[in-house]
Amino acid sequence: MPRAKSICLTARCPRVTVRAGRCETHAPPPRTWRTSARNKNRPGDFHSRRATVLARDRFTCQRCGSKTELEVDHLVPIAKGGTWELSNLWVLCATCHRQKTYYEDRA
């Protein structure tokens, strides 16, 4: 059974709704996916690169040897001229990554 037509929710607008309870004039623009500034320049194959780096480093933190809470990190941060090349990526546990980031921000 078709749905009954309704009028726009905007005050004094008698037009029929099309999206979100509003007419074509007052309807919000369709949603678009936003890329955060942080990941804007990340390569499309990042997940395969991440898997490659994890396997290369044997799923082990390269600082302390931990095998839990692993993260892929840049040796030289992107903000300081680093790249997304495999040679600039390594595996760190969350604790070592936090420490490295803390000291990088202070340098």
Q: Any overview of this molecule?
A:
The model has no long low-confidence stretch (mean pLDDT 89). The chain has a two-stranded antiparallel sheet with strand order 1-2. The chain has two helices and two strands; from the N terminus they run H-E-E-H. The chain has helices at residues 46-56, 94-106; strands spanning 70-74, 89-93. The longest helix has 13 residues, at 94-106. It is of the alpha+beta class. The termini are far apart. It has two domains: 1-30, no CATH class; 43-106, no CATH class.
Summarize this structure as a short list of keywords or feature phrases.
elongated; 107 residues; alpha+beta; 22% helix; two-stranded antiparallel sheet; 2 helices
Quick overview:
This protein is of the alpha+beta class.
Largest sheet: 2 strands, antiparallel
Helix and strand run:
HEEH
Ranges where pLDDT stays below 50 over 5 or more residues in a row are none
Strand content: 5-15%
Large-scale geometry:
elongated
Query: Overall pLDDT, averaged?
Result: 89
- Supply Rg: 24 Å
Estimated helix fraction? 10-25%
Query: N-to-C terminal Cα separation, in Å?
Result: 67 Å
Class by SSE composition: alpha+beta
Give the helix tally. 2
- The figure for the number of domains is 2
Number of E-type strands: 2
Going across the major beta sheet, what is the strand order?
1-2
Topology summary:
Elements: H1 46-56, E1 70-74, E2 89-93, H2 94-106
Antiparallel strand pairs: 1-2
